[in-house]
Write a structure and sequence with these properties.
Elements lengths: L3 E9 L5 H9 L3 E5 L6 E9 L3 E7 L11 H11 L9 E7 L3 H13 L4 E6 L4 H4 L1 E3 L1 H8 L2 E4 L8 H9 L17 H10 L5 H9 L9 H8 L3 H26 E3 L8 H8 L4 H42 L4 H18 L2 H17 L1 H13 L9 H6 L4 H7 L6 H10 L8 H12 L4 E2 L3 E2 H28 L19 H35 L9 H9 L5 H14 L2 H13 L6 H9 L6 H12 L9 H7 L12 H13 L4 H11 L3 H25 L1
Length: 699
């Protein structure tokens, strides 16, 4: 029997647990990408339904209503209005929160007016008893003309019932809940007569919303039924009032709340966590614990991974037949990939902590706290979301700036977000901190390396604030927007959601960085194993004649390998840029790593791993950290990665725009190469100057 496929759109207000429902339905059967033609993130997943049926679920961006105020909300409206879209749903699953049904049902009644089969999911049912809430489900189903799934995404209850309702979507009523056209019968009557084959509410949204609606002749509608903005606004307000009147009447009959039974700690916690003094201290303490844990917990698995890849490289070199292919695998691919895989534990722990903060509801309090700081520097309160999410990756963080209505504030947010320390910087920070900062406990409890990492994160945030102050004065923002943030209820993080987030984000990091690093490792190996002229072939003869028997066997092999590397193609490239970076304390090998890391910051470590593997002639099993620690300047005999050079590099990567993907998304979001060019040159020059000053003062 052929498998039947149902297209499902998951819709709901922010903070209703929509993502949790999506995770319960799909598990790890998820894909993350962008909507065609725009950079709003989309999540799609599949679910096995009863009766040999497969569901394809599209998790739409959170929206409060079909009256769009941002570009990601437009995505929801455009899809629901265009029946010719390949993703147009067979059924809409609208997720609501049992504690905020009144507000959530506004969106549901609008979707019902589009005559799309819709299922109402009332989530967080496990809170009903504690909040003193009881529901009359049959009455609500009758009034809302739908079927209701009462679920707890936290406990996994009601999901089976929801799957059954999705499978039976064809039996759902598509009749609207109320007659919205009664707000102006004469106007809507003329609209109905002019376009008898179109849905009336769809026509109304065409008139009031500035989005793309595919097949509808927008100009014809606007020419015949144009109204002033103030009159349209008045009608929209009448529509909203009418809907809330219907929702109030429905909930009066179908929902009761016994406040005597409710026990709510939320207000007490908010008074502490959003306090104008203690709120910041608590947030600072939480960050301190996170960065301490990242170093403390990840050290053992990182050392095992590092030693494992080193052993694998040595084993490959010793056991495969000699030749270029073996050299490529042992000196190029394995060290390059190992330079990224080693940081999986730290990346996973970072996403683990971020996910817990988001799942618990605490991150919304952080956004509220930071808004007090943001608005002083010409940023919107909504700028906090991109800046905080930039700790994972600047690309989706810049996309998140689409929620900022004011163009100048949005532009400033886009330009300063790359200062925020992203997960791609973490491998660079981790390896350099481990080389120059001792593994020492200060004040009895704090790890010095963890403190250094936290200071780098704070430095990135201060860099973003400083850049925002300058841009605010240059761009002269005239209009201020107001920040409205919803405070979700506190809840225990759902283990399944945290697990899926950690797996998916870490996998995206490894796959995204791994492809780039694999390609660059192969290129670096080729350029480092071949060179112009015959010096590479004559290296052994030249070094033997130069040193005779004065060197031991291992040192002779290292000298030959170093001579080959210096005279390779990559050696010539590195030597050509060395004069520009020498004042910063960098040699030509570091210069090559900086150039290649423009593809992605984390490539820095992979490039050095490949270069040092090629440049090592001895068959030892030194890890990448040990090779970097042992690297010395042949002219001075001093260690290359000393304190001054290490601090200079840390500051360079804290401020430099070393990510072409971020530049690409900035171009996409600003629709101009002007702003990414300014971003690239200003951040790079600033990073160069800061690193130069730091090295010259510390050397």
């Amino acid at each position: 029997m052929a498998t039947r496929t149902i297209k499902i759109s998951l819709i709901g207000n922010p903070n209703t647990g929509k993502t949790s429902v999506f995770n319960q339905l799909t598990g790890l059967n998820q894909q993350v990408g962008n909507y065609p033609g725009i950079t709003v993130e989309r999540k799609q997943g599949s679910v096995r339904l009863p009766g040999n049926t497969k569901g394809v679920i599209l998790d739409l961006p959170g929206t409060y209503s079909l009256n769009a105020s941002s570009m990601d909300e437009n995505v929801v409206i455009e899809l629901l209005l265009n029946r010719n879209d390949k993703d147009f749903p067979d059924v809409a699953v609208v997720v609501t929160d049992v504690e905020n049904l009144k507000r959530n049902l506004l969106l549901f009644t609008q979707i019902k007016d589009l005559e799309i089969p819709a299922i109402l999911v009332i989530n967080m049912a496990d809170r009903m008893e504690r909040k003193g809430i009881s529901l009359n489900i049959p009455l609500l189903e009758e009034r809302l003309k739908t079927k209701i799934a009462l679920v707890s995404s936290r406990k996994g209850t009601g999901i089976t019932k929801l799957k059954e309702l999705i499978t039976e979507y064809a039996s759902l009523s598509t009749e609207p809940c109320l007659n919205a056209s009664s707000i102006d019968p004469e106007y809507f009557g003329r609209l109905r007569n002019a376009f008898p084959n179109q849905l009336l509410y769809k026509l109304w949204l065409v008139i009031t919303q500035d989005v793309n609606f595919g097949q509808l002749e927008r100009n014809e509608i606007e020419d015949s039924f144009t109204k002033s903005k103030s009159e349209l606004k008045r009608l929209q307000q009448k529509e909203t009032i009418k809907r809330y009147q219907f929702i109030n009447d429905t909930l009066k009959q179908g929902m009761t709340v016994d406040t005597a039974k409710a026990k709510d700690l939320r207000a007490k916690l908010d008074r502490i966590l959003t306090h104008k003094i203690f709120g910041y201290l608590i947030f600072f303490a939480i960050l301190l614990v996170i960065f301490q844990s990242i170093f403390a917990w990840s050290s053992v698995p990182m050392d095992l991974i590092d030693e494992g890849f080193t052993w694998l490289s040595s084993y490959t070199s010793n056991n495969l037949p000699p030749g270029k292919l073996t050299e490529l695998i042992a000196e190029g691919i394995i060290p390059g990939i190992g330079g990224v895989v080693i940081f999986i534990p730290q990346i996973a722990f970072l996403f683990f902590f971020i996910s817990i903060l988001e799942e618990s509801g605490y991150m919304s309090r952080v956004v509220f706290l930071m808004d007090r700081i943001m608005k002083r520097f010409g940023l919107s309160g909504k700028s906090v979301v991109p800046l905080i999410s930039g700790t994972a990756c600047a690309i989706p963080a810049i996309m998140a700036a689409r929620n900022i209505e004011n163009w100048r504030e949005r532009l400033i947010t886009i330009l300063v977000t790359p200062f925020t320390t992203c997960s791609a910087r973490l491998p660079v920070y981790a390896i350099l901190i481990s080389l120059i900062i001792p593994q020492r406990t200060v004040w009895g409890i704090f790890n010095l390396q963890g403190l250094t990492l936290m200071l780098l994160y704070l430095l990135g945030f201060l860099g973003a604030i400083g850049a925002a102050i300058i841009l605010n004065k240059i761009l002269k923002t005239k209009f201020k927007s107001f920040f409205v943030a919803e405070m979700p209820n506190y809840k225990m993080p759902l283990a399944k959601n945290v697990g899926i987030t950690v797996v998916e984000k870490t996998k995206a990091f490894v796959y995204g960085a791994g492809k780039i690093i694999l390609a660059i490792s192969i290129i670096i190996w080729f350029l480092g194993s071949h060179g112009p002229g015959d010096k590479m072939e004559r290296a052994e003869q030249i070094i033997t004649e130069q040193y005779g028997n004065s060197l031991g066997e291992d040192k002779l092999k290292d000298a030959i390998a170093s001579y080959k590397l210096e005279n390779s193609y990559i050696g010539h490239i590195g030597k050509s840029i060395e004069p520009a970076i020498r004042p910063l304390g960098y040699d030509w090998k570091i210069g090559i790593a900086i150039v290649t890391s423009f593809a992605a910051r984390e490539v820095f470590v992979g490039t050095l791993a490949t270069i040092y593997t090629i440049g090592s002639g001895a068959d030892d099993e030194a890890t990448i950290k040990e090779r970097m620690k042992q690297e010395t300047n042949p002219e001075t005999g001093q260690k290359v990665f000393n304190f001054a050079t290490g601090i200079s590099l840390l500051l360079f990567y804290a401020f430099a725009m070393q990510c072409m993907s971020t530049l690409a998304v900035t171009k996409k979001e600003t629709n101009s190469w002007k702003w990414p060019a300014i971003q690239l040159f200003s951040m790079s020059i600033f990073a160069y100057l800061v690193s130069l000053i730091a090295y010259q003062l510390l050397k």
